[in-house]
Design goal:
Elements lengths: L9 E4 L5 E4 L19 H4 L1 E3 L14 E3 L2 H9 L3 H8 L4 H4 L4 H5 L16 H10 L38 H4 L11 H10 L3 H13 L4 E7 L4 E4 L1 H4 L3 E4 L11 E4 L7 E7 L6 H9 L28 E6 L14 E9 L4 H10 L2 E6 L7 H5 L5 E6 L3 H15 L6 E3 L6 H18 L6 H10 L3 E2 L4 H14 L5 H8 L4 H16 L4 H17 L4 H10 L5 H34 L3 H14 L3 H15 L7 H5 L3 H10 L4 E5 L7 H14 L5 E9 L5 H9 L13 E8 L2 H7 L3 E8 L4 H4 L4 H15 L2 E7 L3 H17 L8 E7 L6 H4 L1 H21 L8 H4 L8 E4 L14 H19 L6 E2 H17 L1 H4 L4 H28 L15 H10 L6 H18 L5 H8 L2 H9 L1
Helix pairs in contact: 6-8, 11-15, 17-21, 17-22, 19-20, 20-24, 22-23, 26-27, 27-37, 28-36, 31-32, 31-37, 32-34, 34-39, 39-41, 40-41
Bound molecules: guanosine-5'-diphosphate (GDP) and magnesium ion.
Length: 1039
């Protein structure tokens, strides 16, 4: 590189060391810059991409060029380092037109073929890795030849590989200029934040904090010399922890971190500092065996390459206790902030910290006695001076400054040569503990906005769209006191009426002949729905989501956050009560009641959309010209737009266990109109027991935003749309991928409620039927329940002639981290397959479709490639544990596998309209099949059928017998229909007169069969047990 620096003109570096030099004619100045001076001016001397950039495409050219040195100087003088770096990494177009979530989510070719080939790839790789929680997202430099997941090169591969050199060349050995070519991770993070919209920023901040990386608190822009408080970006970070006060009760606190009142301890540097402040901080926050790089520091890969745009950045992280005194470093939660760069150059940032922190630790090598910066501040924070120096050079200055600040020994730490890092950290920890204990200086990040405004620091939430949206959301959520009452008053169309409508529709399916009467009842109900004036909440909601541009996304996010905050408070109370009741009382009714309350107190954004769907469906029964109807015509289009922007939408309303078919299909029709014609979709679904990490898996894998359970127990299915990039459409043969997440299957909270099996089985059958690939999430401890569900799915598939479809099936075993998992579990896989086959055979026999002998006849599944083992999510003990790299990598491999499977799909993908029809007909079919779904599994269903066969046989025998003896005809009247009654009555009947024996027995028998017919199917196993007494009944007959 350094040889090029004296050249005038553009040098294009092609692959493998080919250099193309284009002299620039007509420029008369030859520019020669000394190497040493370049240290701070790296900004512009780097290579620049040559091709025009395509904002919509994420595949920039890998060809890079060198700029002239004159430009480097200009950029530096004109404060254009940012621009220059952005050009280097091809992010410049996004500086004005910010990167949005759907661009980040888009499935691109690199998802399956990865590798970092040039600087322009680096930010995308960092982003992609961050999105899948890869804890190596910021570090490592590699040769880029490996896969994305294994290596994450921030260093661009060089053309001339010096390590291959066989000569002895001292120039080379002492040449440390190799950092020139590297990008500092902090620069990349800063650049990405500067080039992303508020929603990508939120996603990045959330994921960074889950990886236990520090996140930007104040983001600098070195070209405008402005910095911004990243309040909005941090809004979505929710943390759980257990302070010491709760360690006895095993309680915990779950809070949105920007709303938590915490003491903040800040670390800054004055002048040069030979200590790596950030590394010291990392050690301060880690227990030694589990050291973690929370802050990027100079001793990590690429950490020593010069920072071009990230000086002035303040990062923040949190230390949160887990309630174990042996592990916790601090027993109370604390925020830790770290300023990059010298406070002398970043006074605003320093002032901000002094006014918001409980303590500021100032690191220095050399102190200037006249340093007014330290003494002039309007401090709220305690100041600690941390010198890494010897006594001679600093004594006088230190004395002077300390006196002026009124500091005692307590606030001065000198790291002498004798103190090693461990000793030093021990001292700092002690000081921090004392500050936390004593200080009442606690502020929330939300409150920091005021300080920022006072200092002329921008706040990201100040944009009008965000503020208007906030007001709109608060207007709705501020009204919510009692959730149940609120739902009744403001969202009246969904609950009872919708459930009733659902029931009527079901009856309509079953009793085709009395349809007219049912239609009448349905009309009545819809009339009732229409009779409600639209509630104020719904009016505000619909208005707000009709707002243009990003305002509606801000609104939806505010709504979601506000509602989460509300239900978090409400539900934690109820859940506490639930736990207590489970402990103390045997009273099932009470527990059931709390269950119902938990279910009722859940209020999410989906309830508002559900209401919208109901209002829309009801309005369709009005005449076409009715203004009330016309007013609502645009709603499906609105939702289609949201869907297209990646917003998850409810497909099945789990509470009523129904799909608002008209609403969903109108949304899909609108979606089809919004995109170009004949766009194809492929569908991926996940099935599994509640709380086993399904949503987390999908969110990690596809960057979607399904609700991760925060105690709410919703049920149903949600769908989210992902675009497929042009570069891979042809390979995958589709334009969109629809991801369906199911909620509430087999959840213990809901199991108590009626019809639980039925709902679960219907839901499972529907989503499997709707998908090209079904991911079955099996957590070790509840594999039985999953098999129960699968049995019904298989059964339903065999039964429903309409299906005619064979979805691919992938089993995902979570929380398995052993390297030998795949090997060891081969027996388990065989067993699983055997069980799956058995249940297919059982189901096939029942359905008289015995040609289906194995599971693979019904679903496409390979025991070898169809099982994935994914290690646990956390590496260590939460709350301080980062996401394990094993999880991230396994999920990424799974993603590649799934995309590969889609690629190999033989059947052609449906277009959106075909899919809409498919949803309709499948749901109708599922609703027709009410018989099978009410069973726990097909084995129970089988027993039920066998039971009836047996009884019928027996009945027939009996009838024959009675006919012969002319006994008891027309005299059977018993109405007993409780099985519990049966043994009792049987006993008493048995003791009566021998003469009437057969007559009585007949009575009993009829009671039993009547009872069995009315029996709730899922209680059939119970019935089977009781029927073992059947033998005695038979014996009775024979007497
Ligand atoms: N310990 C552990 N927790 C997990 C894992 N996966 C998810 N979680 C947590 O479990 C909770 C429920 O996850 P969620 O994805 O909502 O489960 P879902 O109900 O199956 O969709 C969340 O708090 C997750 O953070 C895992 O592998 N290990
Ligand atoms: Mg979920």
């Amino acid at each position: 590189m350094k040889n090029y620096k004296t050249l005038l003109g553009l040098i294009f570096r092609l692959n493998q060391g080919t250099v193309l030099y284009i002299p620039l004619q007509g420029i008369g100045i030859m520019c020669i810059v000394e190497m040493e001076n370049l240290e701070n001016k790296k900004g512009a001397e780097e290579k620049r991409p040559t091709t025009a950039k395509d904002v919509s495409s994420r595949g920039p050219s890998c060809m890079e060029a060198l700029t002239t040195q004159s430009k480097a100087q200009d950029d530096y003088k004109n404060g254009r380092q940012l621009k220059s770096l952005l050009e280097d990494v091809d992010l410049e177009p996004y500086y004005t037109k910010k990167l949005s979530l759907d661009q980040v989510r888009e499935i691109i070719k690199k998802t399956i073929t990865a590798g970092c080939k040039c600087k322009a790839d680096v930010p995308w790789h960092v982003l992609d890795k961050l999105m899948i929680f890869n804890a190596t997202a910021r570090n490592t430099d590699d040769d880029g030849s490996k896969d994305l997941i294994i290596s994450f090169p921030l260093e661009v591969p060089k053309c001339d590989d010096k390590s291959a050199s066989t000569d002895l060349d001292f120039e080379d050995l002492f040449d440390s200029s190799n950092t020139d070519d590297m990008l500092n991770p902090l620069d990349i993070i800063t650049a990405l934040f500067l080039c992303s919209d508020g929603f990508v920023q939120q996603e990045m901040a959330r994921k960074m904090s889950m990886c236990q990386f520090s996140v930007p608190l104040l983001l600098p822009n070195c070209d405008t010399n402005q910095c911004t408080l990243m309040l909005w970006a941090m809004r979505d970070i929710v943390k759980k922890y257990r302070p010491q006060s709760l360690s006895e009760s095993k309680g915990f606190i779950e809070d949105r971190i920007v709303l938590s009142e915490l003491p903040m301890i800040s670390f800054v540097r004055l002048g040069e500092c030979s200590l790596s402040k950030s590394e010291i901080l990392n050690k301060l926050l880690s227990n030694s065996p589990q050291y973690h790089d929370t802050f990027v520091h100079r001793n990590m890969e690429c950490g020593n390459s010069p920072r071009r745009i990230s000086n002035g950045l303040i990062e923040i992280t949190w230390y949160l206790p887990g309630g174990n005194t042996n592990i916790d470093i601090f027993s109370q939660p604390v925020a830790v902030a770290n300023l990059r760069g010298d406070i002398a150059s970043f006074e605003a940032q320093y002032s901000f910290l002094c006014q918001t922190s409980a303590a500021v630790f100032v690191f220095f090598d050399h102190l200037d006695a006249e340093c007014s910066l330290l003494t002039n501040q309007n401090h709220k924070a305690q100041i600690f001076l941390v010198g890494n120096c010897d006594r001679k050079s600093n004594e006088d200055a230190l004395k002077k400054v300390a006196t002026e600040l009124g500091l005692t020994n307590n606030n001065i730490i000198i790291k002498t040569k004798q103190k090693n890092d461990a000793d030093f950290i021990k001292i700092v920890r002690k000081k921090v503990r004392k500050v936390i204990r004593r200080s009442d200086m606690k502020v929330t990040i939300e409150q920091m906005a005021d300080v920022a405004h006072g200092l002329g620091i921008l706040v990201d939430e100040d944009s009008p769209e965000c503020q208007i949206a906030k007001t709109n959301a608060e207007a709705i959520t501020a009204e919510i006191q009692d959730i149940l009452k609120y739902k009744d008053a403001q969202l009246p169309c969904q609950d009872q009426i919708w459930k009733e409508l659902t029931r009527l529709k079901l009856e309509e399916f079953q009793l085709q002949n009395v349809q007219s009467q049912l239609q009448l009842q349905k009309k009545e109900l819809q009339k009732k729905q229409n009779s409600y004036d639209m509630s104020t909440a719904m009016t505000c909601f619909i208005n707000a989501i009709s707002s243009p541009g990003t305002e509606r996304f801000y609104f939806l996010k505010w709504m979601r956050m506000n509602l989460d905050n509300l239900s978090r408070i409400k539900l934690s109370e109820l859940q506490e009560k639930y736990q207590e009741k489970c402990k103390n009382s045997e009273n099932k009714e009470e527990i059931k009641e709390i269950d119902r309350q938990i279910s009722n107190s859940s209020l999410g954004i989906e309830h508002f959309f559900r209401e919208m769907g109901q209002i829309y469906e009801a309005s369709l029964s009005l005449p076409q010209t009715d203004p009330a109807r016309q007013q609502l015509q645009h709603l499906p289009k609105l939702c289609a737009e949201l869907l297209l922007d990646g917003f998850p939408l409810e497909l099945v309303d789990g509470d009523a266990s129904n799909i608002p078919l008209r609403w969903v299909s109108d949304v899909l029709s609108q979606l089809s109109d919004l995109v170009s014609p004949n766009r194809k979709i492929r569908v991926v679904t996940v099935l599994g027991v509640q709380g086993t990490g399904k949503s987390t898996l999908l969110n990690t894998m596809f960057g979607v935003q399904f609700a991760v359970s925060s105690g709410r127990c919703t049920r149903g299915a949600f769908m989210s749309l992902i675009k497929i990039n042009e570069d891979i459409k042809n390979v995958l043969n589709c334009d969109f991928m629809l991801i369906i997440d199911t909620e509430g299957l087999k959840s213990p909270e809901l199991a108590q409620l009626d019809n639980s099996y039925e709902h679960d089985n219907e839901l499972a059958t529907l989503v499997v039927g709707l998908s090209d690939i079904t991911i079955v999430n099996v957590a070790m401890e509840n594999s039985t329940e999953m098999k129960d569900i699968l049995q019904i799915v298989v059964h339903a598939f065999l039964r429903m002639k309409e299906v005619g479809k064979k979805p691919k099936c992938v089993f995902v075993h979570q929380n398995v981290s052993d390297v030998s998992a795949h090997e060891k579990n081969s027996r388990d896989r065989k067993l699983l397959l055997e069980q799956l086959n058995e249940m297919t055979q059982a189901a096939a026999k029942m359905e008289k479709k015995e040609e289906n002998k194995s599971f693979t006849d019904v679903m496409e599944y390979s025991p070898d490639t169809g099982n994935w083992y994914i290690p646990g999510l956390w590496n260590g003990n939460p709350p301080m544990a980062p996401v394990s790299i094993g999880y991230s990598e396994a999920v990424y491999e799974l993603k590649k596998h799934i995309i590969q499977l889609l690629r190999n799909c033989e059947s052609s993908a449906n277009d959106i309209l075909e899919y809409k029809e498919w949803v309709k007909s499948l749901w109708t079919a599922v609703k027709h099949e009410n018989f099978i779904f009410s069973f726990k599994n097909s084995l129970v269903a089988d027993s039920y059928t066998k039971l009836f066969t047996e009884i019928n046989k027996w009945k027939w025998e009996f009838k024959r017998e009675t006919r012969i003896s002319n006994f008891g005809r027309g005299e059977i009247k018993s109405e007993t229909s409780d099985l519990n009654e049966f043994p009792r009555s049987f006993k008493s009947e048995a003791s009566t007169d021998q003469k009437n024996k057969k007559h009585k027995a007949n009575n009993i028998f009829i009671s039993v069969s009547r009872f069995l017919r009315t029996l709730l199917p899922h209680r059939v196993s119970h019935a089977c047990k009781s029927l073992s007494q059947k033998k005695s009944v038979k014996m009775l007959f024979h007497h």
